[in-house]
Write a structure and sequence with these properties.
This protein has 424 residues and is of the alpha/beta class. The protein has helices spanning 19-30, 174-182, 221-231, 246-259, 277-283, 319-338, 393-398, and strands spanning 38-42, 55-56, 66-67, 71-74, 88-95, 110-114, 126-129, 133-136, 139-142, 152-153, 164-166, 187-191, 195-201, 205-206, 217-218, 235-242, 262-266, 287-292, 296-297, 303-307, 310-315, 350-355, 359-360, 366-376, 380-385, 401-405, 411-412, 417-422. The strands form eight sheets. A six-stranded mixed sheet has the order 7-4-6-5-9-8, with no helix packed on it. The two termini are 32 Å apart. Bound molecules: adenosine monophosphate and magnesium ion.
């Protein structure tokens, strides 16, 4: 942890870690958690799941040489020197039917009609594209030579049997499961999904499904954080809303910690007298509190603790702060606990954009600024900062993403290029 005098905690004490130090601490602590057990799932249910074991190819793809074009299967040597003015003439000896074994190779100076994907007849070693031929009754005029292997995908050219295809820890994407389907793999070994228990805290918070009388506000965080956790591939259990009272907060925190791999609560994570987050995580057991407060804005009063192998996160109650702290700390934790490697920066697509106005920042903390993108890919993107209090969820709704002002930086000027992390 950095104890640079610039980093002050919630009470102004020195010692709040920088974002970089906090991320290192988080990753170090998470690396001690054993990976979740493996389970076999049908390939059709495997998208987004994290492989528990390397997958190697069981067969060659393609299993036989195939044509990649519509045309004529030939012996390449018999087309050498062919041109429009001096074509080669080959007799049409038959046709390769799709889905069937090809006839035996073309006799000397013969060819076979073949469609894209057709199996190359033994003896043929190239395909001349239809565009470079003139079919005439039982002869075919070839107006361009074909090189050996041209327009042919050879056996195993795509995938070789025995080849390592996907590493353990890889999160399966649609194209990955497509490849496995091509190999006839019907089931994969993946880590169990991360179970994450979520609750909101605060005497003023009421369920979003009912009225909000004066003094009360509807719970926005549970549903937002649950949706974000599901986007990360986690399975969510929602524990509702707890009051700012130990006899309500502590038992729910303890139950959630017993029943989940990760616990996430929002509100009460700061150091006020009514903030019970710190007390609750201290009661959950060892090793206990690992981080409390990070030099970032929004999201400073974040808690990260471990109760055995359960990671416990306390997010600030302000919805924007909670969402930001989720992307910085909880999303990588879900990946790590899932068995996938996690990066230090949010794993979101990034585009460069020209800042449209000056923006100030206090040194000594990392700022995250919501931004609306303008312009276009062709003309270049521009980024308009969306300013507003961290309680204002509408700033997130109007934003296409956010950019970062590094902790050493006192602000950015209009015209500078920023990297905008894009929301999905
Ligand atoms: P806290 O972190 O508990 O001090 O809360 C900070 C601010 O966020 C307060 O104005 C809370 O009312 C608000 N807040 C806390 N939890 C939620 C929630 N679940 N949904 C919406 N706002 C919340
Ligand atoms: Mg509160």
């Amino acid at each position: 942890m950095s104890d640079s005098p610039q980093h002050r905690d919630m009470l102004g004490r020195a010692g709040v870690p920088s974002l970089a130090d906090a991320v290192t601490t988080l990753h170090d602590a998470l690396s001690g958690i054993p990976p979740l057990p493996a389970e076999a799932v049908p390939l059709a249910d495997a998208r987004g799941r994290v492989l528990a074991a390397e997958v190697t190819a069981t067969e060659d793809i393609p299993p036989h040489p195939r044509s990649t074009m519509d045309g004529f299967a030939v012996r390449a040597e018999e087309t050498f020197g062919a041109s429009e003015s001096l074509p080669a003439y080959l007799r049409l000896a038959g046709e390769v039917m799709m889905g069937e074994c090809p006839p035996d190779g073309p006799p000397v100076e013969c060819c076979f009609a073949i469609a894209t994907g057709g199996l190359l007849p033994p003896g043929a070693n190239a395909v001349v594209m239809l565009e470079h031929t003139v079919p005439m009754d039982d002869m075919v005029e070839i107006t361009r030579p074909a090189a050996v292997g041209e327009n042919v995908i050879g056996r195993g050219d795509d995938v070789r049997a025995g080849e390592a295809l996907l590493a353990a820890g890889h999160r399966l994407r649609p194209q990955d499961i497509g490849l496995l389907a091509g190999l006839g793999i019907t089931e994969v070994k993946v880590h169990r999904r991360v179970r994450i228990g979520i609750f909101s805290t605060g005497d003023e918070i009421v369920p979003h499904t009912g009225a909000a009388p004066p003094g009360k506000i509807r719970d926005m965080n549970s549903i937002t954080l649950a949706a974000m956790a599901e986007e990360c591939g986690a399975e969510v259990v929602v524990y509702g809303i707890v009051r700012d009272r130990e006899d309500d907060f502590l038992p729910v925190a303890a139950q959630a910690a017993r029943e989940n791999d990760i616990v996430l609560f929002s509100g009460g994570s700061s150091v006020g007298v009514r903030d019970l987050g710190e007390k609750a995580v201290r009661r959950l057991g060892k090793p206990g509190m690992i981080l409390h407060g990070v030099a970032i804005k929004p999201g400073k009063p974040v808690i990260f603790a471990l109760a055995g192998n359960t990671a416990v996160f306390g997010m600030p109650g302000h919805p924007v702060s909670a969402a930001m702290a989720f992307r910085l700390f909880v999303a990588p934790a879900i990946r790590r606990v899932s068995g996938a490697p996690a990066a230090r920066l949010p794993e979101m697509p990034v585009v460069g954009a020209v800042l449209e106005r000056n923006i100030n920042s206090a040194p000594g903390r990392t700022d995250f600024v919501q931004a609306a993108l303008g312009g276009s890919r062709q003309q270049g993107f521009s980024a308009m900062p969306i300013l507003g209090k961290s309680g204002a969820l509408s700033t997130l709704v109007r934003a296409d993403g956010f950019f970062v002002i590094e902790e050493s930086c006192q602000g950015l000027e209009a015209g500078e290029t920023v990297e905008v992390f894009l929301y999905p």
